[in-house]
Amino acid sequence: MIILVLNGPNINMLGIREPGVYGTESFSDLLALLERTAAEEGIEIVQFQSNHEGVLVDKIQEAFGVFDGIVINPAAYTHTSIAILDALKAVNIPAVEVHISDVKSREAFRQVSYAGMACCKTIMGKGIEGYREAILYLKEYCHA
Ligand code: DQA
């Protein structure tokens, strides 16, 4: 099984950006968690982060026929990007949405998730551990 973990804008700033909201664990900590999870679960995980909407759309399109599942944290594009929603629907790969913070208890403008409309599950408010949970869910969901 091979899973693509896609991260949107500013996720590379984890540990530095608003630690009161996103915690003190760094982006490197997230990458290490993904590596550990891949080794423990015997699956392949490819991580990609971009600050650019179109690049994220390209990566989703390129995942077609290659990846069995997608874990996506579109970050701010969650709340604005119909292009990312359409790309997820186009490739029709099982996808899980992850948010590090508890988006539901935040500002009104964060209450819509376009990407989430194409995802079979949403995990939020669990810090970087949410990515591990999303991967385990996809592993179960895909019966790999
Ligand atoms: C986020 C939540 C978004 O609202 C925000 O724009 C982010 C990160 C999260 O992981 O909690 O950049 O997706």
Description:
The chain is an alpha/beta fold. The chain is built from 5 helices and 5 strands, in the order βααβαβαββα. The chain has helices at residues 19-22, 27-41, 53-62, 82-91, 129-141; strands at 2-7, 44-49, 69-73, 95-99, 121-124. A 5-stranded parallel sheet has the order 2-1-3-4-5, sandwiched between helices. Helix 4 links the parallel strand 3 (69-73) and strand 4 (95-99). Helix 2 runs parallel beside helix 5 and helix 3 (53-62) packs parallel to helix 4 (82-91). The longest helix has 15 residues, at 27-41. The structure holds 1,3,4-trihydroxy-5-OXO-cyclohexanecarboxylic acid (DQA).
Present the secondary structure layout.
Layout: E1 2-7, H1 19-22, H2 27-41, E2 44-49, H3 53-62, E3 69-73, H4 82-91, E4 95-99, E5 121-124, H5 129-141
Parallel strand pairs: 1-2, 1-3, 3-4, 4-5
The structure holds 1,3,4-trihydroxy-5-OXO-cyclohexanecarboxylic acid.
